[in-house]
Design brief:
- This protein is 40% helix and 30% strand.
- The model is unreliable at 145-149 (pLDDT under 50).
- The chain is of the alpha+beta class.
- The termini are far apart.
- Helix 1 (2-17) packs across helix 2.
- The protein has a six-stranded mixed sheet, with helices on both faces.
- The chain has helices at residues 2-17, 23-44, 88-102, 117-123; strands spanning 49-55, 58-67, 71-79, 106-112, 127-132, 135-140.
- It has four helices and six strands.
- The protein has two domains: 1-44, no CATH class; 48-149, Aminopeptidase (3-Layer(aba) Sandwich), CATH 3.40.630.30.
Length: 149
């Protein structure tokens, strides 16, 4: 869990750099937020897989995926800053997309509208489906996906 906490903190570092809190306050806030997120993911997506993303033997990220019968929801994909923009996230997303294609399922993800990762998802073929507050729900459909009759 130590790595997952550090990874979570790295995803909030830019945001918290602007907050005039003491380091102990930031650490307490991040710990609380990590616990809330972990609980929300566990309760909201029972049975979802949580996989560490490794580079060699070193963890550099995490991938939560809930595989439903019709949709594979990427609950979260996060990478340490030094692992970003190197194709690692793309590799794992393409793997989820291949699995979904084999299951004739869509892949969906929620992304903050200000998150630059949305451009990656668009390049991979995801399309914005709906806005939900600060988030956009994006979806990818396999070319051969058929609708039930």
């Amino acid at each position: 869990m130590v790595f997952l906490r550090e990874l979570y903190a790295s995803t909030r570092a830019e945001e918290l750099a602007r907050v005039p809190w003491l380091e102990q306050q930031k650490a307490a806030f991040l710990s609380q937020q990590f616990e809330c997120q972990h609980r929300a993911y566990s309760q909201g997506y029972p049975g979802a897989s949580l996989d560490l993303i490794l580079e060699g033997e070193r963890p550099v990220g995490r991938l939560y995926v809930h595989r439903g019968p019709d949709d594979f929801r990427v609950v979260d994909i996060s990478l340490l800053p030094q692992a970003r923009n190197r194709g690692i996230g793309t590799y794992f997303l393409l793997d989820v997309m291949d699995q979904a294609r084999a299951a004739n399922a869509t892949v969906s993800i929620h992304v903050e509208q200000s998150n630059s990762a949305a451009r990656l998802y668009e390049r991979l073929g995801f399309r914005a489906i709906e806005s939900q507050g600060i988030y956009t729900r994006m979806e990818w459909r396999p070319a051969e996906r058929t609708t039930g009759t």
